């Protein structure tokens, strides 16, 4: 019986779309490709998730590796968290679940600065009984240790816990610890998959 539901943040409750962000900054296709690789696909991005690097250090390393993109990296990295926007359809599902008897949690790879920004901006965090952010615990998904940390920190039983994430590797890692998982694609599909675990969820998000 599922008692605990754990949500990822990026692309589950919050939209994270670097492509649109770069397009809004009016970079051309070649620039977008280079900047995306230099910033969002950089090793520093993962280090920010892990909390082992701060933004100033990360930006310095990104620029050192891509000096021809220095102005663009400065522009993109400063304030990138503002591209994170609320996924209203998933929020409706979260609110519905919050009215039931489930304990809700967050497990997400997130930079410290960006999490501070969204935590202050959005009030949906009040629905959660516990929050595990990668940069705060020094571990990232899909490392198995972070799932053990979640279970131990909040005294959860794996077989009573369901994890919702948009990255399949993260779901598979959770399942290896005995946690059930839903690979998030759309809110509508999430509602359908929740029916597998719960009764009377037809109204979720409606």
From TrEMBL:
Keyword annotations: Hydrolase
Molecular function (Gene Ontology), one example: hydrolase activity
InterPro entries: HAD-like_sf (IPR036412), HAD-SF_hydro_IA (IPR006439), HAD_sf (IPR023214), PGP-like_dom2 (IPR023198)
Pfam families from the UniProt entry: Hydrolase
Record keyword Hydrolase present: yes
Name of the protein in its database record: HAD-superfamily hydrolase, subfamily IA, variant 3
Gene source species: Halanaerobium hydrogeniformans
